[in-house]
């Protein structure tokens, strides 16, 4: 027993020694692996455990607490409206002066000013936007306008010791209003800028044109009667295609194939219909009508799509917006200080303002309900007339903001709205009246390209005489347009002619052989021809091409037919043949020997042949 017990003790020790050796072996292996991982790089002095602790602070605890580097604060910019004046003045410019300054490269612009910008940086940003500020050499100061409407008094914005800074301007402006840049000594030139800036507009429109989806066509088929209402319904249908695609138009009952002229005429009529139905105002600009019904049906969104397609696909620009409306489209904000009585286009609100202005103290009570309906909550007393009128002006603008927002939603087509925000100055003349050139006699005569016969021949003499007749005709209708108020509204589209006024078979390519069916003088009294109307009859469009590049390429080919008697035999009248898609017209020389004959035939042709047909 003892020998057995004594012999067992050494065995237990050996077993314990074996376990200790295994443990030590495992510990040495773990330390070797750890030492390998924690190998110290003598060149950098950084260890893997420190790197792991830095990357995973929750899993690896280092001796020193880890402090993450401070986040870099993003630089903020504040959009600020500036208005460059041409000289020292005590009051803000009126609407007509603003137009002159705008055409001269001065006027209102919205610029992004970094909050950490110093005076030199602000000067650089302003001179980069206003090239005519460079000769001032820093001799300018900023001014603020007093509250109210119309021409307001200007007061200087005193700079800090280090000059104007971004943070100072943002604080002084308070997120609203406009800063007026006034030269201290010099007077800036107000002559209109050349069309150099149109190059960027042409590039912008070319970029937008590249976003048109050409995989399919957006087909629109309408009758010529009630083009706008039928076209509006077809536009909203959008089953297999949409306005994202190239639009192709066909007039039901006509043989014309759309190679561009039908599309341009359709867009011209649609733009005139949008202006007529959804906008109200005068020649200085219009605002959207306040119509909850049209807003609910998203008609204003459709109007925005029509504007985008018209600009990108060769139609007329929507140059009928009030200045403040375009400012809202291009910035997303309403400049209250720039809105005046002239911006109130609603007849009822305009009448209310007039009644408030002339009302006696005892008559103010009778206007109380209408005044409170405009959101005015103060006392409606005779002494508060000015505050009441300001409330009416603000109410007229604020209530149509949803309509403007819906128009912007429609103009998101092709990314037009975003590009307007990026380039507000380039697109302004497409939206604000008075900036985009209207068709006149000078433009039309500059665009004609006659194909003359041999110099000195009898045919050449007849052709030159017809060109002179054409020039006299265009200049005469331009003079009449300026002297009288035309039946046609703004775009020169002829008033709709009923079936009883049209001869069977009349078309744009009229070749009849009989006496005129009606007296042209009587027609001229009933229907007025304008330069835009005549241009649309020739080419399908009643507007001057938008960009300078398109204007240079725009030509109207004039040809002459000397052999109609050979084809038709004995006859008394032939009418000009118009190919609107190729911008060409052929005059029958045999029937245009005198100006009265020319006037009679061209008047009846324009008035009676609006349809497209095949030759």
From TrEMBL:
GO terms for molecular function: ubiquitin-protein transferase activity. The keyword tRNA processing does not apply. InterPro entries: HECT_dom, Hect_E3_ubiquitin_ligase. PROSITE patterns: HECT. Keywords: Transferase, Ubl conjugation pathway. Residues 244-270 form the HECT domain. The lineage of its organism: Eukaryota, Metazoa, Chordata, Craniata, Vertebrata. This is HECT domain-containing protein. Residues 497-522 are annotated as: Disordered.
